[in-house]
Amino acid sequence: MLLKALALRSIDEIPKIQGDVTKKTIIILKVTPLAQKSVDELKSSVEQLYEFATAIGGDIARLGDERVVITCQ
After folding, report:
1. Of 70, 4, 13, 3, residue with least CA distance to 37
2. Which of 16, 49, 51, 59 is the most buried (most CB within 10 A)?
3. Could you tell me how far CA 44 lies from the centroid of its own chain?
């Protein structure tokens, strides 16, 4: 398994993040850049990532106020 730290700046980055998780990469995702831009986009992004993680048997968890971690099974 690999570990990547990324910043989420746009909802358009979600497919790439999902691809990385599918390839067994643990993602630590800083969500502050998107939160400063659009709270609605942030909520939608986190919902998409939660549904994705659940569907593949992975998990998503909050790390403080600025980050989430996404893992595969």
Report:
1. 13
2. 49
3. 11
Residue 58, helix vs strand vs coil: coil
Decide if 33 contacts 17 (C-beta within 8 A). Answer: no
pTM score of the predicted model? 0.90
Q: Strand 59-63 to strand 2-7: parallel, antiparallel, or no bridges (unpaired)?
A: unpaired
Element (H, E) at 48: helix 39-55
> Residues 1-10: pLDDT tens digits?
899 999 999 9
Per cent of the chain over pLDDT 70 is 100
